[in-house]
Amino acid sequence: MKKLVIVLVFLSLISPVFAQDNSNKSKDEEPNLYYTNVPVEKIWLAGNGYIIQYRRATNQIGTIGIPYNWFTDPSGLAELVKLPKGPNWPNMSVFYKDGNFSHIRLYVHWLKSHQTWGVTPFGADVSRWFKDKDSFKFDF
Question: What is the pTM of this model?
Answer without folding.
Answer: 0.73
